[in-house]
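Good morning,

Attaching, inline, the backbone tokens for the sequence recovery test we're adding to the shared suite. The designed sequence is right after.
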């Protein structure tokens, strides 16, 4: 039985697009966290200052958000239903980061970020909600499944 014939093409297309999208978010996190000079220079100075002063917990929750979304998208490619839990974790941590960044007077991010950043934050929120819905749909149709254990032939 060929697994690619039983899974709709749109599933593979959307899963691949999701992997690339969430990989870009992870790349952004890595470039900012490791302070890659060429990348940091493109960030406005007041935001650079804030990024240097951000709390450790903020960076930790942001890391949970980006890495769980990336891992969830990889699990989609492996057709594992555990992807849903990772996308929910990513959404929860993303909301924590965004609520603090937008509502905290210490952060005051609303005024520092550009319109493009606000648009990207909205796109991230939309994409996480979309992939949670996507996972739920394909769990119901049986495309996403639990890992099968014990049914493999021994390696000889």
């Amino acid at each position: 039985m060929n697994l690619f014939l039983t899974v709709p093409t749109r599933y593979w297309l959307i899963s691949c697009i999701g992997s690339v999208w969430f990989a870009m978010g992870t790349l952004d996190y890595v470039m900012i966290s490791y302070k890659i000079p060429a990348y940091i220079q493109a960030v406005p100075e007041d935001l650079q200052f804030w990024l240097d002063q951000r709390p450790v917990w903020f960076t930790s929750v942001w890391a949970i958000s980006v890495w769980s979304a990336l891992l969830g998208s990889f699990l989609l490619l492996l057709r594992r239903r555990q992807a849903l839990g990772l996308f929910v974790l990513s959404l929860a941590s993303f909301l924590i980061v965004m609520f603090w960044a937008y509502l905290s007077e210490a952060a005051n991010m609303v005024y520092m970020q550009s319109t493009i950043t606000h648009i990207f934050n909205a796109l991230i929120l939309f994409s996480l909600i979309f992939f949670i819905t996507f996972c739920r749909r394909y769990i119901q149709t049986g495309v996403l499944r639990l890992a099968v254990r014990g049914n493999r032939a021994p390696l000889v």
